[in-house]
Write a structure and sequence with these properties.
heterodimer; A: Rossmann fold; two-stranded antiparallel ribbon; 9 helices; B: alpha/beta; Rossmann fold; binds magnesium ion
Chain lengths: 272, 327
């Protein structure tokens, strides 16, 4: 898929994220909009995973540690053909499988996440299994910046480098906001790159909304042989909708009808 | 204070050692058997395993949350992952990983809680696991097993290895004799074993408390002409309701025995079933009471709380008196 096609998809994905969040009157809007370009490039350019090979032991694995931005994942998975898009009309409804965090009841989802700090250790386990079995699949996990203080992440950072898991890539959706404010105010994790490097990971920064930059960054994996890779993707919470960008109140804010229409107009006017 | 002599008649191995040798047997023919440890190779008797199968052992270091999360990832990628750590840490420090990464995500990890209960008696409450049945019982999709003897341990490890579902096994480091059994009963999760038949008292015991229950039953027979049944209720969940109902209907009194808090474990699981099914008999839960646990060896702690030949026989006599009105 060309970069232009991917950019068109990103616009479309943003509109669908808003459509289903508005339909459900629930969802993690800001974070879904901040991570969607990453998911777009992962699923349409990087990952060897599709409905056809999802039960193959050789498929690539993607575990979404920041489970709450599940709307972004659902929209991409439905676009990839894992389930009919109309299923998303049941989002968060009684007895729907499409709940507010990923579960394996939804085709294409690898692990049930939602509690924070859980994706990376499971990704480490997947990557270790690949090494043990001499399989070539790669493992990706997406972390939120708000979940970085979870101790289990730092335990897993140690294990990832100890076992030289260069088939493992963790991506940080670094929108610098979490529910109570900025990450710098809540729990300053900087300098993230120096910390990760000292933990034995190979680190790159990227603009998490620049499709070409994301492509070239993922194409460079592994950044160093014998080391797991860490991508600090600088993003904007609420990206693509002017009144949401950089505003923490859109962490799980749902737009009203007028706001929704304005968002669609803004997204429709994007020139690619 | 009265000194408590270790029982000299025990002639088995520690269940922990049986765990290690059984796992080696399995690993020799199945390279998907993987042990994941948190610097617990020594205490888990897994040093020989690591020497024989270095590529099938993943050392995590002392990081139990990560231990369980990594084991879940290994299991989801096809490994038969045995996550081994002292029960006290495994089921408290890593509880959220057990709940989400193993049980909720349905990754068939075999969680092995070693040195369980008060096995680390004198090390104090940090090292005791008297909560594990209670917390795990409230989590959906996990089988909870406390093997009593070497036979049950070996069988449980083999079943756990083959299980496509999450399992928690816990055992101690005390030498255990192989228990007799009433008839040829194959070991299955969720099916208790009848160790001894009787119709006056039903001792429903689990793990390393089954043996003192058997000793008490023999004493009651010899000294009081009281016929006590002993059941090894190795599986705490799913509980063998059929056997429990059978024993409760047949016997005049019921005593549960566990190396666990009297809250939330085997005893309350039995009480809940019996009450809801209208089976009312004199009933006593024996275990560790809700207090700062007394210090001492496992054996001394057992004696202190009446989990012993004499203590359990006395409890039985007390319950029988309620029925007969005799002294
Ligand atoms: Mg954030």
């Amino acid at each position: 898929m060309t970069a232009k096609e991917l950019k068109n998809r990103s616009v479309n994905y943003r509109k669908k994220i808003l459509q289903y969040i508005v339909g459900a009157n629930a969802g993690h809007t800001g974070g879904s909009l901040s991570c969607i370009d990453i998911l777009n490039v992962l699923y349409n350019h990087v990952l060897n995973v599709s409905p056809a090979n999802f039960s193959s032991p050789d498929r690539d694995r993607y575990i979404q540690s920041k489970g709450h931005t599940v709307e972004a994942l659902y929209v991409v998975l439905s676009d990839k053909g894992f389930f009919p898009e109309q299923d998303l009309e049941t989002l968060c409804r009684y007895q729907s499988n499409y709940i507010g965090h990923p579960t394996k009841k939804v085709n294409g989802v690898e692990q049930n996440t939602g509690a924070l700090g859980h994706g990376l250790p499971m990704a480490v386990g997947n990557a270790l299994a690949a090494k043990m079995d001499d399989r070539d699949f790669r493992v990706f996990t997406l972390l939120g910046d708000g979940e970085l203080p979870e101790g289990s992440n730092w335990e897993a950072f140690l294990t990832g480098s100890h076992y030289k898991l260069d088939n493992l890539c963790a991506i940080l959706d670094y929108n610098k906001l979490q529910i109570s404010g900025t990450t710098a105010e809540v729990c300053n994790t900087e300098p993230i790159d120096a910390k990760l490097e000292s933990f034995g990971w190979s680190v790159k920064h990227v603009d998490g909304h620049d499709i070409e930059a994301l492509i070239s960054t993922f194409d460079a994996l592994p950044f160093e042989a014998g080391k797991p890779s860490f991508i600090i993707a600088h993003t904007v919470k609420g990206k693509g909708v002017s009144y949401m960008e950089h505003h923490v109140k859109w962490h799980h804010g749902v737009p009203n009808e007028q706001q929704y229409q304005q968002a669609l107009e803004e997204l429709d006017s994007v020139t690619i | 204070m009265e000194a408590v002599a270790e029982n000299k008649t025990i002639s088995g191995k520690a269940n922990l050692e049986v765990f290690s040798s059984t796992l080696q047997e399995l690993a020799a023919v199945d390279r998907n058997i993987v042990v994941v440890t948190s610097d617990s190779r020594g205490s888990g008797k897994l040093v020989p395993f690591g020497q024989r199968f270095p590529k099938q052992l993943v050392e995590i270091g002392i990081a139990e949350q990560n231990l369980v999360g990594v084991a879940a990832g290994l299991a989801s990628a096809g490994k038969k992952a045995f996550a081994v750590s002292p029960a006290c840490f495994l089921t408290a420090r890593a509880l959220e990983q057990i709940k989400n990464d193993v049980a909720y995500s349905d990754n068939p990890v075999k969680l092995i809680g070693i040195s369980a209960g008060v096995s680390y008696g004198a090390l104090g409450s940090t090292h005791h696991s008297l909560h594990d049945f209670a917390v795990l019982r409230a989590i959906n999709n996990i089988t909870i097993v406390a093997p009593a003897d070497n036979y049950e341990t070996a069988a449980a490890i083999k079943l756990a290895a083959a299980a496509g579902k999450p399992v928690y096994l816990r055992f101690g480091k005390k030498q255990m004799p192989d228990l007799p059994q009433e008839s040829d009963q194959s070991f299955r999760f969720g099916k208790g074993r009848i160790i001894r038949d009787g119709d006056d008292v039903a001792f429903i015991a689990t793990g390393e408390t089954v043996y003192p229950a058997l000793q008490a039953a023999r004493k009651l027979e010899a000294e009081n002409n009281i016929h006590a049944a002993v059941i090894s209720m190795h599986t705490i969940k799913p509980l063998d309701y059929d056997l429990l109902a059978l024993a409760a209907k047949k016997c005049r009194t019921i005593i549960t025995v566990e190396e666990h808090s009297v809250y939330g474990g085997l005893g309350e699981a039995c009480a809940s079933f019996l009450l809801q099914n209208g089976i009312m008999k004199p009933f006593k839960i024996t275990g560790i009471p809700d207090e700062y646990t007394v210090t001492g060896s496992q054996n001394e702690i057992f004696h202190h709380y009446g989990i012993s030949e004499k203590g359990l026989a006395d409890t039985a006599l007390e319950l029988m008196r309620k029925i007969t009105g005799e002294l």
